[in-house]
Amino acid sequence: MRPFELTAPATLDAAVTTPGTYLAGGTTLVDLMKLNVLTPRHVKDINDLPLRGIDTRDGLRVGALERMSDVAGHPGVYPVISRALLLSASQQLRNMASIGGNLLQRTRCGYFRDVAMPCDKRRPGSGCPALTGANRGHAVLGTSGKCVATHPSDLAVALVALDAELRLAGAEGTRTVALADFYRLPGETPEVENDLRPGELITEVVVPRLDWARRSTYVKVRDRASYEFALCSAAVALDLRDSRVVDARVAVGGVATVPWRLTSVEEALRGAPATVEAFTDAASSAADGATPLAHNGFKVDLLKRTVVRALVEGSRA
Ligand SMILES: Cc1cc2nc3c(=O)[nH]c(=O)nc-3n(C[C@H](O)[C@H](O)[C@H](O)COP(=O)(O)OP(=O)(O)OC[C@H]3O[C@@H](n4cnc5c(N)ncnc54)[C@H](O)[C@@H]3O)c2cc1C
After folding, report:
1. Is the Cβ–Cβ distance between 28 and 153 less than 8 Å?
2. With CB atoms 3.0 to 4.6 Å apart as the test, which of 22, 80, 87, 254 could cross-link to 230 if both were Cys?
3. pTM, rounded to two decimals
4. Are residues 266 and 245 in contact, defined by beta-carbon separation less than 8 angstroms?
């Protein structure tokens, strides 16, 4: 790890107007600094800032510094969000890691995390070895010739399904962006992962009220039962009346370069009976547009099956 200067701004204003990289729980940042993937000269510990609070009175508002474990355990939080958090990382990490940091964690692509390897995301123009190398865990949706790394956050998948927004603060003031618009596809510039402007901070996550999201769940398929990132995951919420789907939200993770909303599946579900057969029909378009690599073709089928499983579990919730 390289030497760096650590400060702890006392106000939001001081935080957004001084140079440096934000440190919340540190479970991603310190990791990547130890690997020399990130080498910031100035690190700003934001833990003294007033970015706390969980409010479930009208939808959900969560301060960016709330810990994953506190949000997961809050009784008013939509089940799909609690579940996505509880299936993330480990209890120790969830006790430390913040909601804002979770949404800004970096990909777990082995080539990105290994500074001895080329990586267009870490060193633009150096190439993407995952295209032809060890790509079993990589994305099949939203990829480009420069990057096939998956987006790692489980929480982001649940939040995209629920139309969540981020409140951001910067030197020029505050603004709100839809989480679905916040993340960028890699395209020709995989190093640009989101819409955050220099110095900007996530202050709060806002989930609009959706009463029927009380019937929701998150299914995560991975190589081992805990402490592991998703090979594929699905967040669903279902509005059911008389055993028919009135409305649905579906998003998937572990298969795409950004959290991936499946509006075609949602459309196919509206008006359908809440049966395995109808869920299977609706999920048939889930992998449309997928471009599998040599070792991750299994994700195409896995994606459809994970969506069906999540719909079945969601319909019984
Ligand atoms: C072994 C292991 C397993 C894991 N498994 C999972 C998993 O299964 N699913 C999953 O979703 N995650 C998983 N994680 C990732 C973990 O959830 C993240 O490391 C954590 O959520 C990051 O939060 P943090 O507060 O520690 O962020 P930090 O490490 O402090 O920061 C992460 C990044 O976000 C920036 N940042 C932090 N807060 C803000 C803010 N408010 N505004 C602007 N920028 C900010 C930092 O500058 C940094 O770039 C795992 C991590 C480890 C180490």
Report:
1. no
2. 254
3. 0.98
4. no
79-86 helix and 154-161 helix, angle to the nearest 10 degrees: 170
Residues 6+ apart with CB under 8 A from 81: 60, 71, 72, 155, 158, 159, 162, 207, 218
CA of 96 to the centre of ligand 1 (A): 9
What is the Cα–Cα distance from 89 to 100, expressed in whole angstroms? 15
* Distance of CA 65 from the midpoint of ligand 1 (Å): 11
Which is it for strands 173-178 and 216-221: parallel, antiparallel or unpaired? unpaired
Cβ(162) – ligand 1 distance below 6 Å? no
Ligand 1 atom closest to the CA of 27, numbered from 1: 26
Averages of pLDDT over runs of 10 residues in the chain (317 residues) are 95 96 98 98 98 97 98 97 97 98 98 98 98 98 98 98 98 97 98 97 98 97 94 98 97 98 98 98 98 98 98 95
Which atom of ligand 1 is nearest to 30's Cα? 29
**What stretches of 20-131 adopt beta strand conformation (E)?**
21-23, 42-45, 54-55, 60-63
Nearest to 26 by CA among 99, 101, 130: 101
- How far is the centre of ligand 1, averaged over its atoms, from the C-alpha of 244 (Å)? 38
Tell me the best of 29, 182, 197, 220 to mutate to test the pocket of ligand 1, counting ligand atoms within 8 Å of each CB and taking the most: 29
The SS3 assignment for 74 reads coil
Contact criterion met (CB below 8 Å) for 132 and 178 = no
